[in-house]
């Protein structure tokens, strides 16, 4: 018998999943009692966001299409002015982590209900974590206020996500599930979500790379993305996320790409400390060496595998090593200077993990 002792945080979101589910946005807005809605997007997704506004035609809607990466507070404040001008009673976020980040930053300040319509695999709609950029610094906070009330996962809206973005966004999502399996506060519920998520996403990505309009593969990827987001929102992350945070902050490296490069190396680093996790990953990835399998997956889908290709200077290895060792955090294997430096050297050069 296994004696189970754990804490599981259930976040109260209503999720609608499936092709064409965007058609339900009006009904969902009515359930929340919304009458004056602000629809949010990035500049490139402005036209698609207008289509969402049309679906909300019975209410007064305004669009704000200025969402950008890193959720800068200036952008949030500009959107907040619009929210106040129109006395908005709800937010609809149409897009990836950047747009959903803006919506969550607005919800933090106003407590307005949110409908999130994710169009990438970032999974931020499922987490109470918000990163904001203020005066050149990224500040991360946690609050249940930022969780959307409703999430609409419509596979049709992800078909236009370019193959390269699909690959890095998808592997970034896998990283959340992998670290959930060895999180300090891991639990059996999240273990199930993580394993199902990794199977779905790792199976879908090569199919999307071969045919970005493969509806079955897109469905699997979006389903996996949802579960990966739940993993990130439920338990604490470890070395992989610490490394990516340090690299992203110090060298302004792109978010999903950095996660894609680091994941196989971080897993290889921790492998000896978590044999049970490695055994489960062997099954779900159908591979003898899960870290190598993830490295090969990135290669197969044409994703970057070296930090050098992302623009990191070689001197950065020392700085990143210091950053990772400077503050304590939970990780199954103790971070140790020479090994971390070696890990970063291999990741810098695009070598397979050891
Ligand atoms: P993104 O939202 O910046 O989108 C990337 C680009 O793809 C944008 O130009 C966007 O317009 C475009 N795009 C999005 N969906 C598209 C589609 N279906 N078709 C065509 N183009 C599309 O990128 P992202 O990777 O989704 O999000 C990254 C951001 O999210 C980062 O700022 C990251 O820090 C944040 N994030 C936060 C959390 C969290 O829990 N707080 C989790 C993951 C990511």
From TrEMBL:
Annotated ranges, domain Alcohol dehydrogenase iron-type/glycerol dehydrogenase GldA: 12-154
Residue ranges occupied by any Fe-containing alcohol dehydrogenase-like C-terminal domain in the UniProt entry: 167-348
Which UniProt keywords are given for this protein, alphabetically ordered? Answer: NAD, Oxidoreductase
Which Pfam families does this UniProt record tie to the protein?
Answer: ADH_Fe_C, Fe-ADH
UniProt similarity note: Belongs to the iron-containing alcohol dehydrogenase family.
Q: What is this protein called?
A: Maleylacetate reductase
State the organism of origin.
Answer: Bradyrhizobium iriomotense
């Amino acid at each position: 018998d296994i004696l189970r002792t754990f804490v599981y945080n259930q976040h109260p979101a209503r999720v609608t999943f499936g092709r064409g589910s965007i058609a339900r946005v009006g009904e969902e807005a009515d359930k929340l009692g919304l009458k004056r809605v602000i629809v949010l997007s990035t500049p490139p997704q402005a036209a698609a966001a207008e289509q969402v506004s049309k679906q909300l035609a019975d209410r007064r809607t305004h669009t704000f299409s200025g969402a950008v990466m890193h959720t800068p507070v200036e952008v949030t404040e500009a959107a907040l002015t619009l929210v106040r001008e129109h006395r908005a009673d709800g937010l609809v976020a149409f897009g990836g982590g950047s747009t959903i980040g803006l919506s969550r930053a607005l919800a933090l300040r106003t407590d307005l209900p949110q409908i999130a319509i994710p169009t990438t695999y970032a999974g931020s709609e499922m987490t109470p974590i918000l990163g904001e950029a203020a005066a050149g610094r990224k500040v991360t906070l946690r609050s249940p206020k930022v969780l959307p009330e409703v999430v609409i996962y419509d596979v049709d809206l992800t078909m236009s996500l370019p193959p390269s973005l699909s690959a890095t966004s998808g592997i970034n999502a896998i990283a959340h599930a992998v670290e959930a399996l060895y999180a300090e506060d891991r639990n059996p519920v999240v273990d199930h979500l993580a394993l199902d998520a990794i199977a779905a996403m790792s199976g879908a990505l090569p199919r999307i790379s071969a045919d970005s309009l493969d509806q079955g593969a897109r469905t699997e990827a979006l389903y996996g993305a949802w579960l990966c987001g739940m993993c990130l929102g439920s338990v604490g992350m470890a070395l992989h996320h610490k490394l990516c945070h340090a690299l992203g902050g110090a060298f302004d490296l792109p978010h999903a790409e950095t996660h894609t490069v680091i994941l196989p190396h971080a897993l290889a680093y921790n492998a000896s400390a978590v044999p049970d996790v490695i055994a489960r990953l062997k099954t779900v990835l159908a591979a003898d060496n899960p870290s190598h399998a993830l490295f090969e997956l990135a290669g197969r889908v044409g994703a970057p595998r070296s930090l050098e290709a992302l623009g990191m200077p070689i001197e950065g290895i020392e700085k990143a090593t210091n950053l990772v060792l400077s503050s304590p955090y939970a990780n199954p294997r103790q971070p140790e200077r020479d090994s971390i430096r070696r890990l970063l050297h291999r990741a810098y050069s695009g070598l397979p993990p050891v």
